[in-house]
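Mods, move this if it's the wrong board.
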Amino acid sequence: MCAFTWLLLLLLLQEGDQRRLWRWLVAVLHESISLPLEISPKEEVENIIWSSHKSLATVVPGKEGHPATIMVTNPHYQGRVSFLDPSYSLHISNLSWEDSGLYQAQVNLRTSQTSIMQQYNLRVYRRLSEPQITVNFEISGEGACNMSLVCSVEKAGMDVTYSWLSSGNSAYTCYEGPVLSTSWRPGDSALSYTCRASNPISNVSSRPILAGSFCADPNYASEKPSTAFCLLAKGLFVLLLLVILATVLWVIRVQKRRKMPRMKKLMRNRMKLRKKAKPASSPA
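Not the wrong board. Structure tokens:
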């Protein structure tokens, strides 16, 4: 329905005025773009009215070397637009999602009652990040491993297409769509799969994965993080035991040191008592 509306609008614009021009432009989010305005040097321009949904700016060319008078009437573009000499093409910086849409330049001439109309359809896109692959698999009773590979891109936005490239035995096969369904049996060659995501301004690929590894070892997907976690937990546990053992030994050693002077004093007292007891018993 949306595509039909755009097509109808384009046909109406082409039929209504032979001096209309139409351009399709794409730009990158947070970057800049220029909407080129083509005016013949022979034309005497009275003013140029730029608009997008509503009036954007009015440019009145200067006379005899004087600078042009520029009035930006839409606060959304304040501080982000400039007009490039000599044609006063519209330059927009720090693009946002809201900048997508239809733009129009109406060039009013001094020598003619007919205005030159130039239309633009601007689409703003984000540069895609590296695709991520999620693997879902199920091993059937016959030993076959049925896999579903799902490709996704964070904050992908609109007009993103996905394709798959599988490689193995020097052969390459392409598939379309974000989801790839395949199967693997023991003894089959190990195929690697790469997902490619594209939009009008970028084209990125994921890291290749060996899907057969998930089927040959069903715990492959979960063993890596769990093994690392177990090793870390075991290491911390052993370290804790060593600390506790060292603390216990240190406490025992300190207590022994404290008891040694008492024991020596007690032994000396006993020796003195024995010496005193011997003379007292000799007359008998």
